[in-house]
Amino acid sequence: MSVLDHPPRRTRGGGAGDVVLVVVLIAAALAVVLTIVFVAAGGERARGGPRGPGALDAVGATATAAGLTVCESTDLPDPRATNAVASRTLVVAQDCAAAGAAPAAVGDRRAEVQVDRFADTAARDAAARSIEGQVRPRGSATVLTTGELTVVVRGTSDDTTAQRLVDALRAAGAR
Predict the structure, then answer these.
(1) CA–CA separation, 88 vs 100, rounded Å?
(2) The model's pTM
(3) Domain identity same for 67 and 29
(4) pLDDT reading at 5 higher than 80
(5) I need a labelling partner for 9 at 20 to 30 A (CA). Which of 25, 82, 139, 166 fits?
(6) pLDDT for 115-165, tens place per residue?
(7) Are residues 83 and 130 in the same domain?
(8) 42 lies in the same domain as 81
């Protein structure tokens, strides 16, 4: 006797259980699709990072939170990076007075930072790739992105300040 010889059994309630099962499966599939779309569309922004006109201030705030001091901060009226909407250069040190002393005596413990803000992440990422290609020799600078910013950190003869800032930026979500 084959399966085709017997008609399918009827479920209780005239098949209402089958309808409920189909609705539950469709709802679960829709939930999975919505989760994937939400993560894909908002994944980059979900990581956060500084955005908007005050974004440039976030790098200085991160340096200060890491126990460093911003010795100089200069807003550039004409951003250096292509498609940047704002730029700022910073000189960061553990101690601004000691950083200005003779390098032979205390070591030059400064980090020079170039921060550029972009209108969107595509322009930011293109600028970061371009900068990474120009940094020579390798390891002489670190290029990071966070929010709308591209951040280039260059150490001097003593890279401890630069490394401390890079570590703080990465802890704050920079990549």
Answers:
(1) 21
(2) 0.63
(3) no
(4) no
(5) 25
(6) 998 888 888 888 888 877 776 655 678 888 888 889 989 887 667 888 888
(7) yes
(8) no
